[in-house]
Amino acid sequence: LEIDATSKDKKGVNTAEINLPKASVDAVAGEKNVFTTIKTDLGDIVIDPDVMAAFAESGGGDVKISITKTDPSSLDEETRKAIGDRPVLDITVTVDGKKMSTFGGSRIRSDVPYTPKSGENGRMLLMFYLDGKDAGKPVKLSLFKEGNDSLAMKVPHLSLYGVGYSNVTFADISSHWAKSSIEFLAAREILKGKTASQFDPEGKVTRAEYVTMLANSVDGIEPEKAAAAGFEDISSAAWYASYVNWAVAEGIVKGYSDGNFRPEEKITREQMAVMTDAFLKAMDLEVDAVNKKVEFTDQTKINTWSSAAVTAMQQQGIIRGTTDGSFAPQDTATRAQAAAILKAYIEALLK
Description:
Shape: globular
Oligomer: single chain
Strand order of the largest sheet: 1-3-4-8-11-10
Radius of gyration: 21 Å
Helix content: 25-40%
Number of helices: 9
Order of helices and strands: EEHEEHEHEEEEEEEHHHHHH
Structural class: alpha+beta
Strand content: 15-25%
Largest sheet: 6 strands, mixed
């Protein structure tokens, strides 16, 4: 469902407001396959069925959505450096006159128009939260969309937002095949280097590390609140303990039958496919299939417990096979491969 609220003359538009009558909200909220797109001069808002249901369940009443262009001069100095003179927008939702910032755990999407300046690299363009508890932090699920000059984001709560630029790189990825994926994730503070100048792209990834990478790739995760999973080989003081607890509670990962999690065990490519598939489902991040199912040259080596996830990741364009047509399911995964997967799912989600 598309609502066109654009003006004929877009010059000087500083505020766009859209009112959705309660009856319309209630009608659409009952349709699980209806996504509502509201187009304005200052950006588009995409409301999925779960968010519309949250509107309907929030007390009942008309829903007003407003996007206001804001003066960046009120920002602190450090934030202004990241934002510069790029757009700053305040996006608000009120239901029956009461401000609504969260949506029952669901995420709302917005696409903000932006034409890159000369020399700006698209993968280093992203959105920033500018107020509230996340002020100054990057919006992790944000993506510059080449071709239509806009920044898409999917967020669990509304805020003041700004288009920003974060140029982060590492000396050891200058000619690496995963350079763009690593820089994309580093700009959003999803992945960090082993040091300030070294990423170690060929370093192997452990089970605990990949769980942590997944948790860090979305906003709104609170691993510290998860109950202890009770694994015998994980100390409550371990840096990854809360992330493992969170992933187990969300159904993203399981331990072994001996009561251990094996956090330091190197993760295989098929294990990574299973965890990524379970993560997307647990976080309600719907990604469409864009590829036909393929048979890898080593298809028979893919375990039955991972085959469905491997197929899903391949069809969604998130995990690809190797250059020789194999999947190499039991090969241990590298930090570069993990980076490519995380970037691919964000691109697929916000395409």
